[in-house]
Amino acid sequence: MKLVPLGDRVVLKQLEAEETTKSGIVLPGQAQEKPQQAEVIAVGPGGVVEGKEVKMEVKVGNKVIYSKYAGTEVKLDGEEYIIVKQNDILAIVE
Amino acid sequence: MKLVPLGDRVVLKQLEAEETTKSGIVLPGQAQEKPQQAEVIAVGPGGVVEGKEVKMEVKVGNKVIYSKYAGTEVKLDGEEYIIVKQNDILAIVE
Amino acid sequence: MKLVPLGDRVVLKQLEAEETTKSGIVLPGQAQEKPQQAEVIAVGPGGVVEGKEVKMEVKVGNKVIYSKYAGTEVKLDGEEYIIVKQNDILAIVE
Amino acid sequence: MKLVPLGDRVVLKQLEAEETTKSGIVLPGQAQEKPQQAEVIAVGPGGVVEGKEVKMEVKVGNKVIYSKYAGTEVKLDGEEYIIVKQNDILAIVE
Amino acid sequence: MKLVPLGDRVVLKQLEAEETTKSGIVLPGQAQEKPQQAEVIAVGPGGVVEGKEVKMEVKVGNKVIYSKYAGTEVKLDGEEYIIVKQNDILAIVE
Amino acid sequence: MKLVPLGDRVVLKQLEAEETTKSGIVLPGQAQEKPQQAEVIAVGPGGVVEGKEVKMEVKVGNKVIYSKYAGTEVKLDGEEYIIVKQNDILAIVE
Amino acid sequence: MKLVPLGDRVVLKQLEAEETTKSGIVLPGQAQEKPQQAEVIAVGPGGVVEGKEVKMEVKVGNKVIYSKYAGTEVKLDGEEYIIVKQNDILAIVE
């Protein structure tokens, strides 16, 4: 099964947060800051979205930084994804 | 009786949530997270909605992921449906 | 006396909620969920509303589902009506 | 003295609420629901308002239903009026 | 010194509220309802404001009714003025 | 060092508030109302800002009244400035 | 690794706040006001963003003042950056 995003939506997969603080303490998942880096898994077709032309600029495989409070978490086949609008992607990490 | 959605509205039917957690405990309906997967039952004609041209991209029978807090629950002939705007559908599951 | 709606407004009359739950208990009016089905009583002319062209798609006599929190309740000659914008009508029931 | 409304504004004068409930009890002004019927006293010229073309559709003397929470109450020569935007008028009562 | 309003701004000077209630009690300034009548002291040039063409319709010397919660109070040479956008002026009093 | 504002931004320097109330009491800075008069120090180029054409109407040296809650306070070389959008300037004082 | 901003986004690096108050007391990081001066590290391509044409006006290396509550803090290779929309940059410091 795969996710095919609509319009200007992009499917992201979060990159693993570093599990260890600088002082060497291993943090359990909860106590960590939510990492904002993710990999692009699928990209919508763009086009006219809410009456505005959107051109898709990210590609599958891009590492991106996305806006902390944006997106919808989705679970598919036990994997977690985040679906955001392209405009919530701030930058590509090269 | 059937629902004929107006404008950019789409009628969805939620897919059954898995009733069992990984540890094997059966959850009653309430305690389960609301599943976000649904099947498209009917699709509005699109066209100019709130002054913006909307082209319908989903089709009857598509399995879709929709935005958690979107939509209106509707009961017809004892069946429950959700009516959302197409823009609240995030992705098609293929 | 009759109501002649302006712009994209539609006058609705709520259809009676079923007074009996599945277990056979008769509910007084208060305890019932507000039914969302209504009949279209009058339809505004449409045209340019708030700077946007609106084409009216519902007709007098249509049974419709409308958005739960939308509309203004109006009493005329002891009868209760709801006036909604067409965009708050989600679907026609056929 | 008279009020000459600007743009898409309409001056209304509330019609008297019925002072007696169905059971025959006379209610003091406070306890009554604010009546939503009003008579049109003056109509603005319309034209471009907030960048949108507005055509005035109500006429002086029309009985109208207006949105419960809309409008500004104004007192002139001891008389009370309500000034609303035409878009807050829901329907004409004929 | 004088105020020259920009864009669709209008400088108003409040007209004195009647200091006496109907029962003849003289109210101190605080206890009175803020009067909504004002005289137009200066009128901006209009033109394109926030991307929308605005034509000025009020003139210096007009008595006007303005929206209760609109405007900014300004003190110049010990005199108090209110600066509003023309759209917050509801009607001219003739 | 100097501030070169972008788009429709304007750099203002507040004019000194009168330090003495009418009764002759000298107020410390805190207890005074924030003065709304300021001098224009620098003016952005205008042009298309947020998709809307903005023409700059104020000039360096103008005394202006600006909206009380608008703007961002900025400190540069120990001097305090306020940067506002031109639309938050209500009037020029001549 | 480097950040390549999308659309009208700009990557900033905060300039060091002066660590000493006028009275000579050295403040720890927390107690200091967040400095609003930053250096431009990378500039997005501009173009049509949310349906509006945006022309980029800042350049890499510019010292800028940005809006206090704007932007998203991002950590990359142990360095902290702020990503803002160009419209949240108030002025260039020359």
From TrEMBL, chains A, B, C, D, E, F, G:
It is found in: Cytoplasm. Together with the chaperonin GroEL, plays an essential role in assisting protein folding. The GroEL-GroES system forms a nano-cage that allows encapsulation of the non-native substrate proteins and provides a physical environment optimized to promote and accelerate protein folding. GroES binds to the apical surface of the GroEL ring, thereby capping the opening of the GroEL channel. This is Co-chaperonin GroES. Gene3D superfamilies: GroES chaperonin. Pfam families: Cpn10. PROSITE patterns: CHAPERONINS_CPN10. Keywords: Chaperone, Cytoplasm. Heptamer of 7 subunits arranged in a ring. Interacts with the chaperonin GroEL. Transmembrane segments: none annotated. PANTHER family: 10 KDA HEAT SHOCK PROTEIN (PTHR10772), CO-CHAPERONIN GROES (PTHR10772:SF58). Belongs to the GroES chaperonin family.
